[in-house]
Write a structure and sequence with these properties.
Layout lengths: L1 H6 L8 H12 L11 H17 L1 H21 L3 E2 L10 E5 L5 H9 L6 E2 L9 E5 L6 H17 L2
Antiparallel strand pairs: 1-2, 2-4, 3-4
Helix pairs in contact: 4-6, 5-6
Length: about 160
């Protein structure tokens, strides 16, 4: 518990310091209550870890690399530029610059095609780029659907 106290652990339910008084009461034979843990989150995390374990970490990393490459190739094939330069590109999220199109407006247009993207997070480039998340249980069909939505949205702005 001392290591946790000094480490600045974040997260309310996972912070064992919040549970310490409850555990001490239990050890003394009395009853204590802190909070109901987020059971849905716990089951969801267990399922996610099961999927990761079944796929295997090496296979998961390779899948993310392959899908990120497929996405970036499609983006660049449309004449768009990727925010991160080559050595700094992520296999889990890709930022895409828009040429003369307001990113919130572009994102709303993509929603019409069944795909949701996130606006850029860097304040100095607000409105100039959007982000595509491709981490987790993403498959090639998700990448293709994203690329199709981007292409349709771009054509709608011509």
């Amino acid at each position: 518990m001392e290591q946790i106290r000094d480490g600045g652990l974040s997260g309310y339910f996972l912070n064992l310091l919040n549970w310490e008084p409850v555990m001490e009461k239990f050890m003394d034979g009395s009853w204590g209550y802190f909070a109901t843990p987020p059971i849905g989150v716990i089951y969801t995390m267990a399922k996610a870890l099961e999927l990761i374990n079944n796929e295997g970490m090496d296979n998961r990393i390779k899948r993310h690399e392959r899908l990120a490459s497929l996405l970036r190739d499609g983006i660049e094939g449309m004449g768009l530029n990727i925010v991160a330069e080559l050595p700094y590109r992520s296999n889990t999220v890709t930022g895409v610059f828009l040429k003369g199109i307001d990113s919130p407006e572009f994102i709303r247009k993509c929603l019409n095609y069944g795909v949701e993207f996130a606006d850029g997070a860097l304040p100095e480039m607000r409105g100039k780029y959007f982000r595509i998340g491709h981490m987790g249980w993403v498959q090639e069909t998700d990448i293709k659907m994203s690329l199709e939505a981007i292409e349709k949205a771009l054509n709608a702005f011509k």
